[in-house]
Description:
This protein has 493 residues and is of the alpha+beta class. It has a domain at 41-108 and 140-219 and 326-491: FAD/NAD(P)-binding domain, CATH 3.50.50.60. The chain has helices at 49-61, 86-94, 98-102, 126-134, 143-152, 156-159, 203-211, 284-292, 294-297, 308-311, 355-377, 381-417, 422-431, 437-451, 481-491; strands at 41-45, 64-68, 81-84, 106-107, 110-114, 120-124, 139-142, 162-163, 168-173, 179-183, 188-191, 193-196, 222-233, 242-248, 251-258, 263-271, 317-327, 333-334, 338-340, 346-347. An 8-stranded mixed β-sheet has the order 6-5-14-15-16-13-17-20.
Amino acid sequence: MNNKYPSPRATPLPTFVSGVFKNDTVVDMTIIPMPPTMDISVIIVGGGPVGLTAAHAFSKLGIDFTLLERRDIIAEDVGASIVLWPHGIRIMAQLGLLDQLLSIGTGLMSGTFQTVNGKAFLRTSSPQLCKTNHGIYPQCFARAELISTLYNTLPPSARSRIHTSKTVTSISSVPGGGIQVLCSDGTSYTGTFTLGADGIHSVVRKTILSLSPPPITPSPLKTRYSLLWFSLPLLPTIPASSAFEVHSKNLCLQVLANEKSNVQFCFLYQLLPPDHSPSKKFTQSDIEAIISRPDVSSLPLGGSGLTVKDAWPLKLKCGITPLEEGILKPEWHFGNQMVLVGDAAHKVTPTIGQGLNMGLLDVVSLANQVSEFVGSAGSSREKVLGGLDGAFRRYRAERLESVEEDYKRSGLVTRLTCWRDWRFKLFDRVVMPIPGVDVLLVNKVNSPIMAKGLVFRGIRVEREPFEGRVKWKEKMPLLDKTAHDEERKESGG
């Protein structure tokens, strides 16, 4: 990576070596970088949706970056679906991605909850209320399509700064400030700081934990549930615009359909046994054993009598993963060298689809804090390096309350839908079906949280993309109308 700052011989920090993924590809390093307008450079580790959104933001804000992704292909077809709620879609709209995302997403307009015998105990229109309150339905995406769209909509100069087959093995400081990231293929990259967007198995987080003194918890994540997912061709048993769930003791089946991808995604949540080892690696045999259990194979898929057993032979892809839960404390960064966003900093169960939305809000907050601080520091490299630690602290302080709210909501709903005990079952089966309760929860809990959604303060748009009954707490920065009209006139628009 070409860098305005010199790249002297790296001084190793206490060593952390990943050494998990083999990498034999060496990427050409001679590509001319995108000209930055801010005097910093960021090494983004992780090319998932959060890392690519950071690349979009930095590209628009004039922040120099390089993105390192361990997979050979950015949009590898792994994982299942992703849900963006209005405050997440609003961020994407500010980045100019709304039309592209709506072309691949499906709006969720209703939900049906059933018992294992196929009896519907709640039909909710809360997604419709979400649109009334915030101007758009929640949107369901196939993960691979979302990543592909985020990558392909980057300008060529930004795409040239994305390198695949890059497994990070160590992160080191360099004399005079800055960092060097070493990859398993022998390549290295230098920058001002490293942004860890590398998910639940974050190398950057492990490095921070290895360097940080107590009271940072060595293992902040706990695992109480697992998620078995599989995809199917789009079946007529469930409307594409509807979410479908089956609730049972220690089990929940959730089905989301994406009509634009002609795929529906099935998610089976289950409570893990008390003796489950966090180090256990699930296998295909584990998946088949779970699916063959009578309490799982008989679960209904919609109201037509189709069951999991009937649909399983039609599966396109499947997988199983433990569901970690936790928030890294007390910090999400190390000095002025490393900072975490998304699942690398906090992990929630995906029952209500908040994970990516939380990661996007992290990117917004961090980008705001860094760009505003660097702008105020001027051309002084010493001031930039000396003040990044404060910018990282302000970012976490701004995000922590919202993260804790989403963490609690996500965990609560997982336990509610899996009937963790009689109290959760009572609330789910007796209280939730009472007319108006779902509306009350949207208006008093969900909407106030979404209304606090952040926006990039340094990216101006022509107009607010979404307006509803509930006003956004933070206004979208708008283009000066006169200047904008003149620009359009000059361009012939």
